[in-house]
Amino acid sequence: RQKIAKELNLVYEFKEYDENEINKLIEDVSNNKIDISISPLTVTSERLQLIDFSQPFFTSNLAIAVQGQDGTTIISFFQKLFSVDFFTAVFLLFIVVFILGFLLWLFERKKNPQFAPAFKGIGDGFWWAAATMTTVGYGDKSPQTAGGRIIGVVWMFMAIVIISSFTGRIAASLTIEEINSKIQNMDDLKSLKVATLKNTNGESFLKRNHIPIYKADFQTISEGLLLLQKGEIDAFIYDEPIIRHLIQENKLSSEIQILPNRLNIDFYSYGLPKRSPLLERLNPVLIKELEGISWIGILDKYNLNSE
Questions:
Q1: Cβ(213)–Cβ(44) under 8 Å?
Q2: DSSP letters of 220-249?
Q3: Which of residues 27 and 121 earns the better pLDDT score?
Q4: How confident is the model at residue 299, as a pLDDT?
Q5: What is residue 77's predicted lDDT score, i.e. its pLDDT?
Q6: What is the Cα–Cα distance from 217 to 196, expressed in whole angstroms?
Q7: Are 26 and 41 in contact (CB under 8 A)?
């Protein structure tokens, strides 16, 4: 931008906007409060109705960032294992075991000496239900009444389904590949916790394709990537070059990866007010700079040439 300003003999001053103020920036450009936006704005049909754009200086796409395969450290393992979902599942399982044990005790308490009366007998029923569910089968407790045996048979089949489901949920929450393998096409995103930044091309894309946005109230892109590291979201959608730069800058390549899926093409341009006389002067100089070797060096510096 400095070389272009020098080439055009322009005197300028900066006005900075936060990452979540893209709409404000575009509004100020359209109202001639800003002469040119050097922020990498993506060209969209909606924005073209408000402002003009220069010759695109970079072509990219929206990308899907997920937790990296190498990010399963001991700490992240225990963070996932001892999550709210995990403890909720354990609590519900405890309740089911207690109910089945209590029902068995109701049938057995008067005719089966293996199940003592009162609270000790309820504990015996709970022990039997837990041992049966886990197929430990010590044999120290077994139903003798018809009603108790019916409950026993029902519980055995229920336990198989419950254990299988419970094990599957834990494996899914602990395995990074499970998330990555689910994202084969755009429709797969609908079943995941997807986040992006408000008032961005990513948000517009997700809404156009009816993909639920789990979270979008971030102040910065880094906040979204942090939630991705913690496993609170499954995928973060944003412009690929910016995500790549942040991953490189914050040394997150072992914890966050970008999937090969490409959602759409983005054209980055400078934004100017409608019918700005600067646009006709800007484009030839911009194209000249893009043809020079210095532009390639800039792309290499910020890791924007890699796939």
A1: no
A2: SHHHHHHHHHHTS-SEEEEEHHHHHHHHHH
A3: 27
A4: 77
A5: 55
A6: 8
A7: yes
Rounded Cα gap, residues 257 and 88, in angstroms: 29
The whole-angstrom distance between residue 162's C-alpha and the CA centroid of its chain comes to 28
Structure tokens given for 172? 């899914």
Query: Residues 223, 225, 230, 232: what is their CA dihedral angle, to the nearest 10 degrees?
Result: 80
pLDDT at 101: 84
Indicate the angle between helix axes 146-174 and 84-108, nearest 10 degrees.
Answer: 170
Report the distance separating Cα 48 and Cα 193, nearest Å. 31
End-to-end CA distance of the chain: 25
Most confident among 127-141, 169-183, 193-207 (mean pLDDT)? 193-207
Supply the pTM of this predicted model.
0.56
Distance CA 192, CA 175 (A): 15
Give 76-95 pLDDT, tens digit per residue. Answer: 555 656 667 777 878 888 88
Angle 290-292-295 from CA coordinates, rounded to 5°: 60
Burial class (CB in 10 A: 0-12, 13-18, 19+), 21: middle
